Amino acid sequence: VAPTTPVCDVPSSAMTGTVVQMSCKESEGSPPSEYQWYKNGVALLEKTGAGSARATNITYTMNKKSGTLLFNTVTKNDTGEYFCEASNGIGLSQKCSVKRMQV
């Protein structure tokens, strides 16, 4: 079964240095969907290890299975327009509407 449009939870504003968790979920897809987050239209990279993450300044953890995007400490650089895409290899992938987070 192809995924339906996912529901994205993105805070509209956050204080610098706080923990922010965004979530993305859809329930129709079978097999279960994987989720990809985008910021300003660019796909976010999945963090693979602390060493590589520090080198590229990644401040978040993205879980493609659960659809969560977790920022341990948000910075002004994390301000932007976020959306998530659900796909399971069947039918078209589905995106939620873009939401802006201001840090």
Automatic annotation (TrEMBL):
The protein's matches in Pfam families, at most eight in alphabetical order, are given as:
Ig_3
Q: How does it sit in the membrane?
A: Single-pass type I membrane protein
Q: Does the keyword Disulfide bond apply?
A: yes
Its signal peptide is none
Q: Which GO terms describe its biological process?
A: leukocyte cell-cell adhesion
- What positions does the domain Ig-like occupy? 3-103
Tell me the compartments it is located in.
Cell junction, Tight junction; Cell membrane
Q: Could you tell me which PROSITE patterns the record lists for this protein?
A: IG_LIKE
Any one Gene Ontology cellular component term annotated for this protein: protein complex involved in cell adhesion
In its keyword annotation, does this UniProt entry include Repeat?
no
Q: Which domain of life is it from?
A: Eukaryota
UniProt keyword annotations, A-Z: Cell junction, Cell membrane, Disulfide bond, Immunoglobulin domain, Membrane, Signal, Tight junction, Transmembrane, Transmembrane helix
> Which SMART domains does the annotation name?
IG, IGc2
Q: Which InterPro entries match?
A: Ig-like_dom, Ig-like_dom_sf, Ig-like_fold, Ig_sub, Ig_sub2, JAM2
Q: Which family does it belong to?
A: Belongs to the immunoglobulin superfamily.
Q: What protein is this chain from?
A: JAM2 protein
Organism, by scientific name, is Thryothorus ludovicianus (Carolina wren)
